[in-house]
Every structure is written in C-alpha cells, then in structure tokens.
Specification:
With 711 residues, the protein is of the alpha/beta class. It contains 29 helices and 15 strands. The chain starts with 14 loop residues before the first helix and ends in a 12-residue tail after the last helix.
Length: 711
C-alpha cells in the first residue's frame, strides 16, 4: 500500500486484522473506559483515534478485496438508450482507463502460480458448475441445479457472465473513467477489428446512436443484414425526430426497400463504365476483355446521356446484347440536331434499296434500318464522337462482339434478374411504385440516415457489385462537395454568382459505417479513405481479421495502403496473431519488476572463530524490459472489451456498454414492426426527378461536340 515498486495486491488482506483490532479497542475505550484505566475524556479521544485508524486500514483492505473480486468477474456494464452521452466535440467509447507501465506490471503479476487463488474462481464455484449439470435431470435436485445456474446478487455460486476471456485485463485498474475521443480525429478514419460475436456490431450501435443524435449524415453499410443493428438505427432516428430522413435499402427485402440507381449519378460520364468494369475479372487474359467491356459500356452511357436518359443496369444490359436500337435512336437525334428533314423517310427509302447479298460479312444479319442510318450519316458527313463510337460497335461482327463483351453479360444478368432489378435500376416514370428513390447528394443535403443491407449471405456477387458502385458514387459525391460544396452554383442559372464571391456553404459531417468491410472493399474504397476526408467523410470500418482484407484485395501492399489511412484503431478479441500484432507492434517496451527470494547458509571451518555458521534471507528486485502488450493478450480479451489507439497512439483499455432495451417504447419489437412502419411511410416523392435537374447540369454536354478527347 506504499510507493514501493511491488504493490502486492494479490495477497491475503492482512489489513483486516488491524482493522478489527482497532474497532475492538475503540469500542472498548468508549463502552468500558475503566477497564483501560482511562478517564472518560481521554477514553473518548482514544476511541476516536482507534476508529479513525480502523477506517483507514479498512479502506486499504476493501481496495485489496475489490481488486481481487474484479479479477474473477467484472460487473455488468449496460446503458439504456437515453443514457448514452452525446457531445458536440467528443465521441463516447465506453468506460476504461489509459494503459501504462503500471498496468503491464499488474497483468504480469497475475501469471504467477502462487497468486492463482486470488485470480481464479474457488473450489466451491467449480463444484457448483459440476453439480448444476449432474443434477439437471435428477428429480428433486433439478430445482437446486436451476438455482445454481441463476445469476443473481443473492447467489454467491452463480455462473460468471458468458463473456469469456480474462477479466484481469480490465481489473488491473480499479478506477474507471468515461473514455472520450476528439471528433476532430474521426476525419482520419477509424478501424475496428474483432472476431465474430465479440461486440463489433454493439460498438457500431453506440457510435451510430451518437452520430444520429448529433445530426450528422449517417450512412451504414451492413453486408450480412443484422436485424438488431437495423432496429437500433430505426429507433434512434425516431427518437431524434429524423424518421422522415431515414432510408432503408435492403436487397433481401425489395418490397420494403427504397430504390437506388447505382450508376445513374456521376460527375464524369466515364464513371459509369468504370463502376461496371471494376466488377469484372482483372487477371491474365481477362484484363483485355475488361478493357473492351469498359469501352462499349462507356459508348452506351455517353449515348444515353446525350439522349437525356439516365443510365441504369437494365439499359446497359439491353444495349450490350443488342446495340442496334440505341444506334438508330441516336442517329435520328443527330439528324434532328443537324437539321436534316424527313429523316425517317430517307432511312426507309435507303433501307429498301439495300440487298443483304451485297453487304460485307460483318453486317449480314443486321437491321436494314440501322445500315441505312449508318450510310446516310456518312454521306451527310455528320461527325459526333458518340456517334462514331456507336458506328464502330455496330460494324463489329455480331459473333466477335458477343465474345469481347461476354464478361459483362453474366454480371448484368445477376444485377437485373428478379425483384432486385427494380431496386438498382428504378423506373423513374412508374407512378404506381411508391418506394422512394434516393441519391447520395440529396441524402447529404437533407442530412439523411441511410441503412444499406446488402444480403451478402444470399448472393455475394450482387452484394459486392452494388456496394462497390455505391462507394464509387460516394467518392464522386465527395469530389463535388470538395470542389463546390453541398449546393454548387450552376452555370445555367440566370442569377449566377461568381464562384469567387459566392459564399461557400459549410461542409457537412458524413459518418460512414462499413460493417464487415472486407466484403465491400475494392478499388473504390481506397480513394474514399485517401481523399474524402476534406469533404467531411469520416469512415468507421469493421472487420474480423486483417487477413480478410488482404485476401479481398489480393495484394499485401495495397492492404498496407488501406491500413495506413486509419489513424484510430480499436481492437476487440481477435484469434489471428498477425491481426493482433497490428496493435501490439505499435506499442513501446516497458520495464517491469520481479521479486526474487534468496536464502543461504554458510558454516565456518575455523576452530578459533566464535561463529559456527551464517544464514541470510534476501528479497531482490530485478528489472526486465517486456512488451507493453502481447498478441496473446488480444486473444484473451472478454467480449465487449477492447484496446484503443487514440489521438496519436495513446493506448486505452475500454469496456463497451451493452444496450439495455428493456421498456424502451421507441425500440421496435422485431423487423415486422419496422416493415409496417416503412409501408405506411412509403409515398411517392412528388416526382422529384422531374424538377430536380442538378444531375443533368452536372453531366450534360453538346449533342454534337467538336472534340471529346477528354472522355
């Protein structure tokens, strides 16, 4: 209990003897001063002195007993939803303490064999665990077995909470405090690592709750579709009065899901082809086919935009399979712009004169109308970069064309089959479909809340494709926000203001949570980490092991690039030592003390000496340098506990509060309650797509430009 380097908290509480003696002496001095031959005044003062000394020693004994009790089992830590603290400047992570050399010393002390009785449950506890199983099926003893299984403060033999791990990792510091993280650090992004069922999603609930109540734009990607996480987000949106800005996008429940065009919003037209081509194989011979696929998808996208049609997966699939209808339609558009009269009559006349036997092999089997359009345009010397691309695609032999774009076909089939097609390729003109359509820029403007359930357990390919397309769209939105703000000044506005004099709106805070992000990460995710911080994006990514990320990217160097963009690291229990080393390798080495007892006896052979032998007993303190934490410590963390590297490498040990949903009127009972509420709230959105023209002004270009080298 002194400032000695060896604290010796794992020992019998010997202070209890002096405590009981002091209280006994104080009581005797008060009640029977004559027995001590003291006058009443002196006896009273003596009694007060004894009681004061007893309280002081009792406090020391209580510290030892409490420390040892927490070594065996930490108390449950729960918070009701309304009790979660929210700050405009800090982010609440739980309760804990900053780890130091002293805690490493205490942790190593728990490994000594002679102190295990103070760290591990006693014999009665193990007897109770055996009997609750042995007596379970015995008539008459079943009730007793049930009582032994009951977790109650009145049952000293009750089982420990099912959190596993080593409670000593947190019990080494009996004085906890609330752990807060500065919000300014979140722009540097946060990585959460932890194996399955260890509390990653519960931590996500805690962080998302604060983000929603703080008024941030909140976007949650959940590949597996955790029902509890969805319930929590819905409840917090309702509690914060933001339910009108809540969007549910779920591939597993298309009838309840809002709709989203994964390739319909972009700042540059080439993004459409990039988002689709990035889903294709990129190894070996597949790389060449990927480039061809990119080119033809880009041709289709540019033609659709020039025709003032929003690209989607359905149209790309249609025109990849048969590009003739798009070519004919765009040819008529170019003829109208060029002022050619009676275009349709000219096409019909020319088509009637074409004989298939006179056509080259590549054009046989093609529509005569399309061939007539091509020849008329060439005769009229109408040049348009988009038209030139369509003609080049049209001239390919159909069999050859099908081969070079064959890699796109299966992907388009997966993305446009069944009810999912209506989610990611919405029909903007269908007034019978009341499901809302959202786009990211509109979500940012409204400070919305979006839950994205990708149902990856059912179809990993579709989940990955949609997720990566959304990430690519978000990167594009981040670029627009970074350059122009949330509401840029448009060039077509008659009241346009100089961009130098216009007041730039404040950048919103966009909190993006990616659960199981190893299922989502791709080439689109890296720039979101690298460059989106300036646009207000703060990413919190959750995954099980770092090897999952390396396997997904297929490149250790690229995985290291991703890891280098996370300034904050929270690690729950992990089973892979390499993952644990991502935290422990960043920590310094510290000095710890160990106590060594030395005993010795020497006899004297000098007959003239009066000393027959010498004995000595020593306690030596040695110093050794050890890691502050080891990978083995990460493997033994209890559920709901984590180590965190915050604000430039400060190591904190935290306990994450478990949610307490009892008697929470806002929390829906199950998914069906959310489903009913969503059905009631789904109404057509006043046909916003007819009046909102920011998409067209961002991507429109002249119908017949003189040069398109930049695209």
């Amino acid at each position: 209990m002194s400032a000695h380097p060896m604290e010796a908290l794992l020992r019998p509480p010997v202070e209890l003897w002096s405590t009981s003696t002091a209280f006994a002496a104080g009581t005797l001095a008060w009640l029977a001063p004559g027995a001590l031959m003291m006058p009443p005044g002196i006896a009273t003062a003596t009694g007060v002195t004894f009681f004061t000394f007893g309280l002081w020693r009792g406090r020391q004994a209580w510290r030892v007993l409490s420390y040892q009790r927490h070594m065996r089992c930490l108390p449950l830590y729960q918070l009701r939803a309304e009790q979660v603290p929210v700050s405009r400047h800090k982010l609440f992570l739980g309760r804990g303490f900053r780890w130091s050399q002293q805690h490493t010393q205490r942790l190593r002390d728990t490994l000594k064999p002679e102190v295990q009785r103070f760290v591990q449950p006693g014999r009665l506890y193990h007897w109770a665990r055996q009997k609750e199983v042995a007596w379970e099926s015995i008539q008459g003893l079943g009730l007793l077995a049930k009582a032994l299984r009951c977790r109650s403060r009145w049952n000293p033999l009750g089982p420990l909470p099912a959190v596993g791990g080593k409670p000593a990792l947190h019990a080494v510091e009996p004085h906890e405090q609330s752990v807060w993280m500065d919000l300014g650090e979140r722009v540097g992004h946060t990585l959460v690592l932890g194996t399955t069922r260890e509390g990653k999603t519960r931590l996500a609930e805690l962080l998302i709750t604060q983000d929603i109540r703080r008024g941030d734009v909140v976007i949650v990607f959940d590949p597996k579709g955790d029902a509890d996480l969805l319930r929590r987000i819905y409840a917090e949106a309702k509690r914060a009065g933001r339910l009108d800005d809540f969007y549910l996008f779920h591939l597993g429940f298309p009838e309840l899901s809002a709709r989203y065009n994964a390739i319909g919003n972009f700042s540059r037209i080439t993004e459409v082809a990039t988002r689709i081509a990035n889903q294709l194989p990129n190894e070996g011979n597949s790389a060449a086919f990927k480039e061809f696929a990119w080119r033809f998808v880009n041709i289709i996208a540019r033609a659709l935009v020039a025709l003032k049609r929003r690209p989607d997966y359905q149209q790309v699939r249609r025109y990849i399979n048969d590009i003739e209808p798009l070519f004919v339609e765009y040819a008529g558009h170019c003829a109208d712009v060029a002022g050619i009269e009676d275009w349709e009559s000219l096409v019909e006349e020319r088509a009637a004169d074409i004989k298939e036997r006179n056509l080259p092999n590549a054009l046989r089997g093609r529509s005569m109308e399309a061939i007539a359009c091509m020849r008329l345009l060439q005769e009229k010397t109408i040049y348009d970069p988009v038209l030139d691309g369509l003609i080049s695609a049209f001239k390919y032999d159909r069999t050859y064309f099908d081969k070079i774009v064959s890699s796109v076909g299966p992907l388009m089939e997966k993305l446009t089959t069944g009810t999912i097609a209506g989610l990611i390729s919405p029909n903007y003109q269908d007034e019978r479909d009341s499901r809302p359509i959202f786009e990211w820029m509109e979500v940012v403007r409204r400070k919305g809340i979006v839950y994205v359930g990708l149902d990856a357990l059912t179809d990993t390919t579709v989940a990955s494709a949609v997720g990566n397309s959304m990430f690519a769209d978000l990167v594009s939105v981040a670029g627009q926000i970074y350059k122009h703000g949330v509401d840029p000044v448009r060039n077509d506005d008659s009241r346009q203001v100089s961009t130098r004099t216009a007041k730039r709106p404040s950048t919103p805070t966009i909190s993006l949570h990616a659960d199981e992000f190893n299922e989502l990460i791709g080439d689109e995710f890296v720039p979101l980490l690298n460059k989106a911080g300036g646009a207000g994006f703060q990413v919190t990514a959750y995954t099980q092991t770092w090897s999952d990320v390396e396997a997904r990217l297929g490149n250790r160097a690229k995985a290291g690039q991703v890891a280098g963009n996370f300034n904050t690291l929270l690690m729950l229990r992990v089973k892979e030592l390499d993952t644990a080393a991502k935290l422990t390798d960043q920590l310094p080495r510290v000095e710890v003390f160990s106590l060594m007892s030395v005993s010795g006896v020497d006899d004297s052979s000098d007959p003239g000496s009066g000393v027959d032998f010498k004995s000595r007993n020593e306690d030596r303190i040695s110093v050794a340098e050890v890691p502050m934490l080891t990978a083995a410590d990460m493997v033994t963390l209890p559920k709901g506990q984590a180590f965190a590297l915050l604000e430039g490498g400060q190591l904190w040990k935290i306990r994450i509060p478990l949610p307490d949903d009892r008697d929470d009127a806002v929390m829906p009972g199950d998914f069906e309650a959310i489903a009913q509420a969503m059905r009631r709230s789904y109404v057509t959105n006043d046909h916003w797509y007819r009046v909102t023209d920011h998409w067209w002004h961002a991507v429109s270009e002249p119908a017949i430009p003189t040069s398109d080298a930049g695209e």
